[in-house]
Amino acid sequence: MEFPTWLPDSVRVWLPAVSAAWLPTLAAAVLALLVAEVIYRLGVQAVRRATRGSGMATTVSTAIRAPAHVLLPLLALHPVWQGAADDLPGLASVQRLTTLAMLGALTWLSARAVRGVAQAVLEANPLSIADNLEARRIQTQTRVLSRVVQGAIILVGLSLMLMTFPAVRQVGASLLASAGVVGIVAGFAARPVLGNLIAGLQIGLSQPIRIDDVVIVENEWGVIEQITGTYVVVHIWDQRRLIVPLQYWIEKPFQNWTRTSSELIGTVYLWVDYRMPLQPLRDELQRACAASAHWDKRLAMLQVTEAGEHAMQLRCLVTAASAGAAWDLRCDVREALVGFVQRDYPQFLPRGRAEVALQPSPQSQALDAEPVPPTRAG
Could you give the domains of the chain? Predict the structure, then answer.
């Protein structure tokens, strides 16, 4: 075996000895990798056949396929390094690297398994159905809790990887003596993170908001588009996005229009003259609702809600299956009623009344005061 000329003589002497010592172990490692690859391929085929009729099992097996392909060879190498001679050069470093990689792959596999279960639950409860209240509840719980569990898995995995280093363990042992002070400082520093974590758990369990809920927050009308581990994305009706921290939904009031049901009552207000007959307007309201595809046929009612100084206020109550349909229905009804009054009863539109009293001018008063000259008798 020839080595590069730039290598020192001491290294040239040392390398053949190391290569010779590692040769049996490397041969065993290659054999273990081949066995692991065969087991992986056979396992993929077996799992694919076993999970053919289960949607969740198929989704989970697909999600963990990549980390399993990494973890199996590392598991196969672990007994090879354990069975190697203790005096093998560099064995401790190789064992530590393998352990770190194995812990990382195991963390990756666990997180992907949780993600696969969550994805299967989301696919089994789509939001595209008409009555999606239960689906929105399940989707919100699944998304929030899966992110929390994945975060906990990654945190535990990183902690285990760090604990493989003796220096880290010594630092941890020395910090235990001052755990009280460190805990107070860490508590103040991590208060926003912990607050959002607790708020996320509360939202996931109690569900004041859910995915696809219609809300009014900060005087903005929008739909809950995404719930992350730290904030909520609200899709505003004009395509803006409002980013709201998780703690906001626990600490401050807001309106949720779809808390228990997506059905809503919409209102339409009109001002008309006092002489306007109401029955034709009620009939027109029924016709307008029946002609609209957004009416759910639960309610269509017209009432006089205020008698003002110059006109009376009419309120129309109409119902729809969702917030978007209620908005469109209100616009349809308002347009139909206004057009009906303009077309058939234009004289009863709101108008201002005033009495004008003519005051005589000074010139006219002066003319009225002048004496009339006598006429000459014939």
Answer: 16-124 (no CATH), 130-257 (2.30.30.60), 264-348 (3.30.70.100)
